[in-house]
Amino acid sequence: MGNLLRLALVLAGKDLRLELRTRTSIISAAVFAALVLIVFNFARDPTAVATLDLAPSVLWVTVAFASVLAMNRGFLVERENAAFDGLLLAPVPREALFLGKYLANFAFVMLVEGIALPLFVLFFNLDLSHALGGLVLTMLLATMGFVAVGTIFSAMVVKTRFAELMLPVLLLPFMVPPLILAVKTTVPLFAGRPLSEVVDGLRFLAIYDIVFVTLAVLLFPAVVDE
Amino acid sequence: MLSADPALVIATGLARRYGAVRALDGVDLALAAGEVLLVLGPNGAGKSTLLRTLAGLLRPTAGTVTVGGRLLASDAHDVRRAIGLLSHQSLLYDELTLVENLVFTARLYGLPDPAASAATALAEQGLAERAHDRPRSLSRGMQQRAAIARALIHDPALLLLDEPFTGLDAVAGDRLRALLAMHVTGRRAMVIVTHHASEAWDLATRVGVMVRGRWAFEGPRPAGLDDFQQHYNEVARG
Question: B56: nearest CA in chain A?
Fold first, then answer.
């Protein structure tokens, strides 16, 4: 287990270093998130729908689409010089390969969410100080689940010609359950309700995480071995 | 068509199908440490498929591969430690420097001192001064040497080379031949896939010709290249 985690951290560290060099997916995902928030900000009619009613949906729609952009690059970097063959050749358990990619994707998506959240607060003029703890917990739990699905789909589509188009098509249906749960959890938090009122939603998110992280770890070897 | 034991690499009845196409069709192979097998054949003969199957990158539809007495299918983790591959492509990340690429590889292989292993591997290939350059800034010949450094960093017992001379000029080709000759040792076997026998003829101890996924010929290297070339042309034409 210790070796598995060590190898996963080596792999994730490599991906983070590559991303810090190029900043391709982080910058594009962060700019995309900002643009979506700007569009929503100008498209809404504050006299028709209360900001508090609209805000949770806008936040999670922004997070969902920006996350897909961030996750797209996960395996695309491995196509360069057939680098993925180098990973498959190494004496590294396939589960460690998955966990490495998963950790890197999780870090990217959390970073994008970390950039999107202050912009969201700015555009929607919300005071989230009372809801910040619960919101961060919701973001962590929702992200853990859909990043697992995104990582395995990203590995599946990387060998196809239209990998960048295929990923959202495959991933978005699987993102619906955690997004619904995340929105349902966020609404009471924004309304100033205590964390105890959203425990059920958080529990369901945790169940989704356990199920899909386990499934992804088990299925990954079959996805990458030819 | 099996060579003398004790064999370091044994492949038995290797087959690989892509739908109806038989890329490999019952290939046997036995290679002892110190032997260098030159694999020739026309396009689509199954040479690269054989190499990728020996490397564990492709699962055979039938048959087994054993390296150092361990079965690739069941002991993949340990067997991979014994295999190095020089592919068509460098397997290096363009956004990492050479030394970063090799340190990363050394960590994947669990080498005790990744930084020292990377420095040694680069120095052996004459790339110590380019250690902090990125692969894409190097000439094709240097990229190939960097790829060899990557393939050899864990001192594999079996080195697989897929058309290693492609894209190299005459000087770089000669240099690569000299480098490979240095790495032919009594405890390592090599399999070199190429289109041109002359490129690695002097390195080879055995020669195999593949046609339509099978050995048309496999045995000790014949004495004369010219005579063999004539024979090869006849065999390759079928």
Answer: A89
